[in-house]
């Protein structure tokens, strides 16, 4: 079993592993949201090196760790040995984050 947070198991901020706390633990990990965003923006499977480039040349070890976390959480999946895509659950996550994107634009306009 990997290291990705899972509902029902203790995670940062929750000894019981409430689903929302497990999700916040996963999404709060360094680079996780950026990887999800870039997988979504690509609109098609994307290779590891291209994904690394789109993520401001993050280290390959960090990208590999984030992709492993996202795979274990069923948010992203490899399409072959070198390309990745969001799963339907991952696309649902992006949709769920839509209101946050809207809020961030309002916030930016007020600053």
From TrEMBL:
Superkingdom per UniProt: Bacteria
InterPro entries reported for this sequence: HTH_HxlR, WH-like_DNA-bd_sf, WH_DNA-bd_sf
Keywords for the protein's UniProt record, in alphabetical order: DNA-binding, Transcription, Transcription regulation
SUPFAM superfamilies associated with the record: Winged helix' DNA-binding domain
Entry's transmembrane regions: none
Residues of the HTH hxlR-type domain: 18-111
Alphabetized Pfam families for the sequence: HxlR (PF01638)
GO terms of molecular function: DNA binding
PANTHER family per the UniProt record, alphabetical: HTH-TYPE TRANSCRIPTIONAL REGULATOR YODB (PTHR33204:SF37), TRANSCRIPTIONAL REGULATOR, MARR FAMILY (PTHR33204)
Protein name, per record: DNA-binding HxlR family transcriptional regulator
Organism name: Streptomyces umbrinus
